[in-house]
Design goal:
Layout lengths: L11 E5 L2 E5 L2 E2 L2 E2 L3 E5 L4 E3 L2 E3 L10 E5 L3 E5 L10 E5 L3 H10 L3 E9 L6 E4 L6 H11 L4 E3 L3 E2 L14 E2 L2 H9 L3 E7 L2 E6 H9 L3 E5 L2 H9 L5 E6 L3 H11 L4 H18 L7 E4 L3 H11 L27 E5 L2 E5 L10 E6 L4 E2 L5 E11 L9 H8 L3
Parallel strand pairs: 7-11, 11-25, 12-18, 12-19, 13-18, 14-15, 19-20
Antiparallel strand pairs: 1-2, 2-5, 3-4, 5-6, 8-9, 9-10, 10-11, 14-17, 16-17, 21-22, 22-23, 23-25, 24-25
The protein binds adenosine-5'-triphosphate and the ligand Nc1nc2c(ncn2[C@@H]2O[C@H](COP(=O)(O)O)[C@@H](O)[C@H]2O)c(=O)[nH]1.
Amino acid sequence: MTGGPVSRCHHTVTTFGNKLVLFGGIRDSKPSNDVCIFDTTSRSWIVPEVLGSPPIGRHGHSALLLNEERILMLGGQGIPFHDAVWFLEVDTPYVRKQSQLLNTTVVAWSKGIFGNLPRPVVICGPSGVGKGTLINRLMKDFPSMFGFSVSHTTRQPRHLERNGVHYHFTERSWMESAIQEGKFLESADVHGNLYGTSIAAVESVANDGKRCILDIDVQGARAVKKSALDAAFIFIAPPSLEQLEGRLRGRGTENEEQIQKRLKNAKAELECGRDSSIFNHYLINDDLDECYSELKRLLGLDLVDANEVQGANSNQAWLDSIHGHSAALVGGNVFVIGGDIDPNVEPALIIIDTNCIVGGAPGQTTRLRLVLHKHRSELPNGNHFVKTSKENGHL
Ligand SMILES: Nc1ncnc2c1ncn2[C@@H]1O[C@H](COP(=O)(O)OP(=O)(O)OP(=O)(O)O)[C@@H](O)[C@H]1O
Ligand SMILES: Nc1nc2c(ncn2[C@@H]2O[C@H](COP(=O)(O)O)[C@@H](O)[C@H]2O)c(=O)[nH]1
């Protein structure tokens, strides 16, 4: 409990049960992204535990409670179209579970996406099979399309491995606490070290509008399968255990004891790779070029020219820097009226359908749908469109 949030203006306050959820505004002359909750029964302020990567600070945005479980935050001055919709989950199953775990009030951020994002891809297979080689090639050929989920690990960095690029190299005690705090999507003991995918790692790729690639072991794949992340699962197998051993030795990054441990674990992993309740696809990495072509085919890239691939989300400029507008919810449709979209552009009417949204924290909320976007000049009766709509009983 505190005496209340720092004073501000151009924020939003949304009613949720007996609580008021305050977000954003100009605070200390800067756009803020903090969340404070006022309990109207006890008349006291609560500072919640905020999970997920938050949006950058904003003011002049609007906020609406959807289905008594999440608050849609829309726009904000200077906020680009691709960052305009965020959800603050206040009572979803994920938030309820985390509240129980952490024994405190929890809210969680999830970025809103129009349409479908391609599913994240989990690449799995025994150590030395060539996962990293295939993923590096994919990232090099399609840099604007794919982003790598940088895992945390307690193992020592290899020669040329960079912290924050290949892995976040971490102390076990730090990682164990972070896992307890719910910051990891999955984690596992692999070949004697702790590895894990943080929620932030997956979110950071998705927030860049890219398709996330996870290179994780079979225990991790099992855990991700059970999570809210709707991913495609691909298992990569070697042509033989002898060739796997040859590749591991040829790589020259492990000592004899570690090689033996990895080869021993490979046998169980190869059995698990055949489990069709987890893996959608099974590839044998014999000839590298052939395996890479097959991987591209599975990902729908076989007919795509790597040089022509652009980033996602290119046609939503109608939400660019929308602020000072008002928004109302009717039957799952968000009606956005007015607002300074751009000093040179007149106010508009925008209708966004939230009825089909899927996903949510930890991760993004997708399948938002644009129903209508009209400039003032395109609306009936020019300046009086709100009055006219009231008279007609609909917008
Ligand atoms: N099809 C292939 N034929 C021969 N060598 C290969 C093939 N694919 C990969 N390699 C080589 O095998 C070694 C292991 O590959 P890589 O490091 O990509 O494996 P990995 O599956 O990512 O292993 P880890 O899980 O331990 O990170 C590398 O030296 C790589 O050049
Ligand atoms: N469950 C997870 N497994 C992971 C993760 N990151 C990597 N891995 C797997 O560990 C082994 C060994 O990797 P190495 O870099 O030490 O050779 C390999 O199978 C990886 O796929 C993770 O975040 N979670």
